[in-house]
From TrEMBL:
It comes from Rhodalgimonas zhirmunskyi. The gene is tatA. It is a single-pass membrane protein. It holds the Pfam family TatA_B_E. It is found in: Cell membrane. The chain crosses the membrane at residues 6-22. This is Sec-independent protein translocase protein TatA.
Length: 75
């Protein structure tokens, strides 16, 4: 059904949308979409940074757990 939409069909749809909503409304909508994408990318990056930080904290905790002296077996 959607395979038959060519360039003329897409142009017609774009013109109809532009007439219905107006240039200002579409411009503000695209601005909001851009802000949403930027916010999503920032959130993903912060989540990745937090995950890496958690892994390094776990490694530090594993190193800190073993506090037994090595000479204990010789006593």
């Amino acid at each position: 059904m959607l395979n038959n939409i060519g360039l003329p069909g897409l142009l017609l749809i774009a013109v109809v949308v532009l007439v219905l909503f107006g240039r200002g409304k579409i411009s503000s909508l695209m601005g909001e979409v851009g802000k949403g994408i930027t916010s999503f990318k920032k959130g993903v990056q912060e989540g990745t940074d937090d995950a890496l930080e958690d892994k390094s904290d776990e490694a530090k905790a594993a190193e800190a757990k073993d506090v037994t002296p090595a000479d204990k077996d010789k006593v």
